[in-house]
Automatic annotation (TrEMBL):
InterPro entries per UniProt: AB_hydrolase_fold (IPR029058), AChE-related_enzymes (IPR050654), CarbesteraseB (IPR002018), Carboxylesterase_B_AS (IPR019826)
Residue ranges of every copy of the Carboxylesterase type B domain listed in the record: 31-477
Enzyme Commission numbers on file: 3.1.1.-
Signal sequence residues: 1-20
Biological process per Gene Ontology, one example term: antibiotic biosynthetic process
Classification via Pfam families: COesterase
Family assignment from sequence similarity: Belongs to the type-B carboxylesterase/lipase family.
Organism of this sequence: Penicillium frequentans
Keyword presence, ATP-binding: no
GO MF term set: carboxylic ester hydrolase activity
Keyword Secreted included in the entry's annotation: no
UniProt keyword list: Hydrolase, Signal
Protein name: Carboxylic ester hydrolase
Length: 542
């Protein structure tokens, strides 16, 4: 099926047929309604779009359902769902109000469509976006990734929540040998729901493009590696892919530590840190797991493990054997200064480079120490912290993209960009330059997606308009490419986006201009990735 849908000729033919059909009578567009398998979804109109928020796609994952595969949602109570407010975010360490409050009943999604009175009669292309947050935090209700601009440009937009951190990947000994990354299974079920129901919203299930940023980009890649035959029409991985980690601890190590901390905090459990079972831990409250150190940075210990079912340790081999959708149009790319923000995130740890590179958070154990020490020169950075951040940006993002590009671009229609937009208000910390995450609201077209940013300028909105224009055109026809030449392994065309002074241009450069350290230091070592690290035995595991 995937093969037929991906044949451009057939897609064009189908579209042309649909366009020629007479239009249906428009519904009352002030209260848009859509009938899905579970019942009637009642949305609302905002800013010339129809919006449907907080649609559950799975049953709750709380209590006895914790650490189990998500279950498809049954019928809505009374066959109706009022979809006018975001649903809860998944359980995580939480501060601030950029996303809705947490719950383990969090598997819900949001849909934006063109306002139904201006609904075209053709079925519309669909863009599905997976937010990032290091596999431990984040939510679909964040203002930076909403679908208003897409819907106004005749693309249906969907985003959704997935389980994170200990609630997603406990890496418990009893799960060894099974599919044990529940966040990845959540993505799988969300995509199935979207495929099964998007036509009710006016979408075309043969024209679904999947994208994500950071750990959302990892999820996109995990989805590709688990779907050699896919219904997708295209994919985009902003910043990250399956080689982006993050690191994880050996089975049981991190979970046992958290159980001990729960007991130390006087949480009532019928088990100890030595003899716990997941069933015993299912009796504990959501917040009981959010111990003092879990709230600091411990929660990064719970990243998806290589279970060889949902995540794999041998991507090159799988690619060669065809366990991957090689004909799928794919965009990958990075921000120019990916790592800069991580110099701040891990500030206390990375003031000493030679000790930083051996920490769990750096996740650099797969590269020999001497190679790393030789590859970074303090003279090139404002501070040791900034240099440590650069190593994080290389290992997790820039070189992960570069390394898999060499594999994929040889056979797959692949394009690569590099983001140079430099706006101090685009990230929570000023003066980070074009760092990790600053491109996301621009891909989304700004406007409503800029609403949490202070002092947005006209120039910024103009760049967002430009970015969104080419991106939407690509979503509508991925096989035609995004407007620049396809990538090639090792050294080939690369598009520079958001270059100051050239905001309304795509400037062509080459991957070879940027990737010498990736090629020299990282690429030969990704074969050994991931190195499972015991955080309890490493320096500075705070
Ligand atoms: C909504 O559409 C109207 C008519 O086309 C237009 O004048 C208005 O600016 C649009 N509003 C937004 C928020 O796009
Ligand atoms: C950890 O953070 C959560 C919010 O996510 C809060 O409710 C809880 O009290 C915190 N726990 C500790 C021990 O600080
Ligand atoms: C746990 O209970 C013990 C014994 O009642 C008490 O001494 C200790 O302070 C409690 N710890 C916490 C974190 O509440
Ligand atoms: C940095 O860490 C290394 C390894 O832990 C240690 O040997 C060295 O003395 C530290 N350097 C400074 C300047 O603190
Ligand atoms: C970003 O812009 C600031 C000025 O606003 C400048 O000081 C800084 O060097 C720029 N950073 C990069 C990486 O271009």
């Amino acid at each position: 099926m995937g093969f037929f849908f991906h044949s451009l000729g057939l897609v064009t033919t189908i579209t042309a047929l649909v366009v020629a059909m007479p239009c249906e009578e428009a519904e009352d567009f002030h209260s848009p309604r859509v009938r899905v398998e579970q019942g009637l979804v009642e949305g609302f109109v905002q800013s010339n779009t129809s919006v449907f928020l907080g649609i559950p796609f799975a049953e709750t994952t709380a209590d006895e359902h914790r650490w189990k595969a998500p279950k498809p949602i049954r019928k809505f109570p009374n066959g109706r769902l009022e979809a006018t407010a975001y649903g809860p975010s998944c359980a995580q360490v939480m501060s601030g109000t950029s996303i809705t409050s947490q719950s383990e009943d969090c598997l819900n999604l949001n849909v934006w469509t063109p306002r139904q009175d201006k609904h075209q009669c053709a079925k519309l292309p669909v863009f599905v976006f997976i937010y990032g947050g290091a596999m431990v935090t984040g939510g679909s209700s964040n203002a930076q990734w909403q679908g208003f601009n897409f819907a106004r440009n005749d693309v249906i937009y969907v985003n959704f929540n997935y389980r994170e951190s200990i609630y997603a990947s406990p890496n418990a000994p009893e799960l060894q040998g099974k599919a044990q990354n529940f966040g990845i299974l959540d993505v799988e079920l969300a995509m199935k729901w979207i495929y099964d129901n998007i036509e009710a919203f006016g979408g075309d299930r043969s024209r679904i493009v999947l994208g994500g940023h950071s750990s959302g980009g990892v999820h996109v890649d995990d989805y590709l590696w688990t779907h050699p035959e896919t219904f997708l029409a295209g994919a985009i991985e902003l910043s990250a892919n399956a080689l982006s980690g993050p690191a994880y601890a050996p089975a049981g190590v991190a979970l046992s530590e958290v159980v001990q901390q729960m007991l130390d905090a006087n949480v009532t459990l019928d088990c100890t840190a030595e003899d716990y079972t997941l069933d015993c831990l299912r009796a504990a409250d959501t917040y009981a797991f959010q111990t003092k150190s879990f709230n600091s940075s411990l929660n990064t210990w719970f990243a998806p493990a290589m279970d060889e079912i949902t995540r794999f340790s041998n991507y090159a081999d799988r690619f060669i054997k065809g366990h991957y959708p090689k004909s799928l149009p794919l965009i990958v790319g990075n921000s120019d200064q990916e790592g800069e923000i991580f110099g701040y995130v891990y500030n206390s740890e990375n003031t000493n480079f030679s000790s930083w590179i051996r920490t769990f958070d750096a996740d650099l154990a797969f590269v020999p120490t001497d190679d790393l020490l030789a590859a970074y020169d303090e003279a090139n950075y404002a501070s040791v912290s900034s240099m440590s951040g650069a190593s994080y940006g290389d290992a997790r993002f820039l070189c992960a993209t570069d390394s898999l590009l060499d594999l994929r671009a040889a056979e797959q229609p692949t394009w690569i960009y590099r983001w140079f937009g430099n706006y101090s208000n685009a990230l929570a910390i000023p003066n980070l330059g074009p760092s990790h995450g600053s491109e996301v609201p621009f891909f989304h077209g700004g406007n409503e997606c800029f609403s949490l940013l202070d002092g947005v300028t006209e120039d910024e909105q103009q760049l967002a308009d430009f970015m969104h224009r080419w991106f939407v055109a690509w979503v509508k026809n991925p096989r035609a490419g995004p407007g620049w030449e396809p990538a090639r392994p090792v050294n080939g065309p690369l598009a520079c986006l958001g270059v100051p002074g050239h905001e309304d241009e795509i400037i062509t450069s080459a991957t070879g201009v940027y990737n010498s350290r990736c090629q020299r230091v990282y690429k030969p070592n990704y074969l050994k990735y991931p190195v499972v690290q015991n955080p309890l035995l490493l320096p500075q595991n705070t």
